């Protein structure tokens, strides 16, 4: 028997992905060193003609139809290299290896170049949507050799999530384009998660919202312009009772957020490219601050903070909805700006309209708003920043006041809104024709003769300040 598709790494993501492939009438063979996982997949797959699995690499490779399409769903890092090495002796020219994990993009470039010499195609292909997405339809972000992509395209299009019938997968660009896009997707994910958590906090502290009320509010937001996966699951989370005691489960969850690196990489690389993404940077910093739990508890006792003045629930909800919408837009704007610059820098030739389209379903950052964003980039392929899109000016203009109101209230009442503040700062500075950085230039010239340019004359100037 020959199978259409091979998958290495039968953890929950891998197992779900392979079952999804089989649901779509492609036969698939799984491989994992762990015999238990092999057995579990065979049992779940029911028909071994359609879904099978093995712990023997040779059996695995020789059971696949050529050119072989082998996807890796293993943790990013050295494991990917060792899996590649174990496959290599068994592969033939033109076979495809697809890394579905969150690998760092320069690792993907290295692996792609290494395998190219051996005539093997390597795809860095972000997969978003978690375990459920893998089973029911993820958003898939592949990058690599364009011709070779055609080999796997029918399978990917079949298994991907569908937005109004359109599959949420597309060839994105050469080399590490797919991993890079997935990295920035995750950066945006960090930003949106931070924002929703802040809004939850202020609703509780300033509006005394109960969890039932939060559930109802987020649920209603999810039926409007804030419709998004993260708002939807937050509503669900607020509704979940703790099964170990009274109250809601979310209240008992330790406020230390973990991270696997993709958000940090997004920020680090944005710094390298010189692209400002403060809404994402602060989301990474907040995970770091959250990790300092013991110190925070200690510091909490050393300082007084104002007792928040209680706000009218309705008014607060209006501010919160508008502010969150405003901040979602500015966060997407920053991530997309990074993608457009990275595309030039790394030669990815990204089509932002296509990327936004494949984010409309399946992935973690899917949101109703992406329909409008996709229109903005379809109308103007060269749009350098979403905030410059004429369609977005009224959306932003009509909601920024609530962001200001909320940030001002929060600052006064000692409630941190770091993501929202940074989004507002980004907006207020990006939309400032004149910033006070003329003084910085003067200081640089004063202490270091670093020179400056003038607003009224061409040329490079230096002044003897003393
Ligand atoms: C997705 C997610 C996923 C990521 C988790 C965890 O698109 O399905 O981005 O790929 O691994 O969100 O990320 P952190 O552990 O860094 O929060």
From TrEMBL:
GO molecular function: NADP binding; phosphogluconate dehydrogenase (decarboxylating) activity
Task of the protein: Catalyzes the oxidative decarboxylation of 6-phosphogluconate to ribulose 5-phosphate and CO(2), with concomitant reduction of NADP to NADPH.
Active site location: 182, 189
Protein name, as recorded: 6-phosphogluconate dehydrogenase, decarboxylating
UniProt keywords, alphabetically: Gluconate utilization, NADP, Oxidoreductase, Pentose shunt
Pathway involvement of the protein, from the record: Carbohydrate degradation; pentose phosphate pathway; D-ribulose 5-phosphate from D-glucose 6-phosphate (oxidative stage): step 3/3
Catalytic activity: 6-phospho-D-gluconate + NADP(+) = D-ribulose 5-phosphate + CO2 + NADPH
Oligomer and partners: Homodimer.
Binding site for substrate: 102, 128-130, 185-186, 190, 260, 287, 444, 450
UniProt organism field: Arenibacter certesii
